[in-house]
Design a protein that fits this description.
2 strands; 2% strand; ABC transporter involved in vitamin B12 uptake, BtuC; single chain; 15 helices; two-stranded antiparallel sheet; mainly alpha; 377 residues
Length: 377
């Protein structure tokens, strides 16, 4: 992660030198909100990349989840916000189940199946949207997912609770491994991790609590950051502390060895595609909340490319077996920083795509060279 963080720092310094408004609190918080969709989609993509697969449909799968949710909360339908979100996410999980079943049971390449899904689910979105092309969202709770903020006091309290829980878990886990003779970092490294998380938490809350309003005061940690943090914590525990997570890494490292070891490859792969689509649904709902509507202008093709780029830039290998959910968050932050910084400079969309592509190719090249070096060793 250190090269990614160093690159993020370098990019930030570059954009700040070009535009002094880049590191202002208002722009930084806007960058985090803007990057939340990239982070969520990248975290979903990590599940399939760890298997050595790819999902090219998650952009429009997330759009289907968002449009289902938007349709159900209309006044004519009258569904409560929580039920609409649940149905949208379940619909996305069902799409993942369909993709995973086709890939594992029929033996088709994930590239072909999900590429077809990208086109097919775009068509489903257009059918649901109908001739109007736009479905507005008037539910305040859903709209506040991307635009609502905690109070400054609640932000500090929540940050201390999260950091305290992380610190306790990290220290006890590393101490237990050291006491039982397992591989574990020294106590100084564990303390350094805790200090780094505390410093990051303080910096983020201080930044978000700074008044960033123009006509009225706006401060506090955005709700959407809690959504990203919750997904990050849940999927990190799932991949790092469960049998399912160990099987995912085993299949990505050597599928045949995992099969001979008794792992049900079809079941694990199908579950990975379900989780990828489910996480994409969360990203689609956040995207809809940010725009307060879902329309035919939803660009799922670009979003899926950003998701793959974010996961790989963050450190997840395209060849499977290596990566973490945190890599999707870091890579999403890099993508959002590039997009935001170039937007402030007035660069066009084609220029953003070119720069993002160059960063992606550089990250894949580094990954391939490192993998070749490990193989020779």
């Amino acid at each position: 992660m250190l090269p990614v963080l160093a690159g993020l720092l370098l990019i930030s310094v570059l954009f700040q030198s070009l535009n002094p408004n880049f590191l202002t609190p208002g722009n930084m918080v806007n960058l985090l909100i803007q990057g939340s969709v990239f982070m969520l989609l990248a975290m979903g993509q990590v599940f399939v990349l760890l298997l050595g697969e790819i999902d090219l449909s998650i952009g429009y799968v997330g759009g289907v989840g968002g449009v289902i949710m938007a349709e159900l909360v209309q006044e004519s339908t009258g569904w409560p916000w929580w039920a609409a979100i649940a149905v949208g996410l379940l619909g996305c999980a069902g799409i993942g189940l369909l993709h995973g079943t086709i890939i594992t049971r029929l033996g088709l390449p994930s590239f072909v199946v999900t590429l077809g899904g990208q086109l097919g689910w775009l068509g489903v979105m257009l059918i649901i949207l109908g001739s109007g092309g736009v479905v507005p969202i008037n539910d305040n709770v859903i709209n506040n997912i991307a635009s609502g903020n905690l109070s400054p006091v609640t932000s500090w309290i929540l940050m201390l609770v999260v950091v305290g829980a992380f610190s306790t878990w990290t220290w006890l886990r590393d101490a237990r491994r050291r006491n039982t003779g397992l591989v574990a970092p020294p106590a100084s490294v564990s303390a350094l991790k805790i200090a780094a998380v505390l410093a990051a938490g303080v910096a983020i809350v201080w930044l978000c609590n700074t008044d960033r309003g123009i006509l009225v005061e706006i401060s506090g940690v955005p709700w959407v950051l809690l959504v990203v943090l919750g997904v990050l914590a849940a999927w990190t525990l799932l991949l790092g502390r469960t049998r399912f997570g160990r099987y995912v890494y085993a299949i990505g490292g050597n599928a045949e060895a995992a099969r001979r070891g008794g792992v049900n490859l079809a079941r694990i792969r199908t579950l990975a595609f379900i989780l990828a689509s489910f996480t994409a649904g969360i990203g689609g709902i956040v995207y809809a909340s940010r725009l307060r509507s879902v329309s035919t202008s939803y660009d799922g093709g670009t979003l899926v490319l950003y998701a793959v780029a974010a996961a790989v830039i963050g450190g997840t290998s395209l060849f499977g077996g290596r990566g973490k959910v945190l890599h999707g968050v870091l890579g999403g932050l890099v993508i959002a920083t590039i997009d935001n910084g170039m937007g402030l400079q007035g660069y066009s969309a084609p220029a953003k795509y070119v720069v993002t592509a160059l960063v992606l190719v550089a990250a894949v090249t580094i990954d391939a060279v490192a993998r070749r070096g490990r193989s020779r060793t």
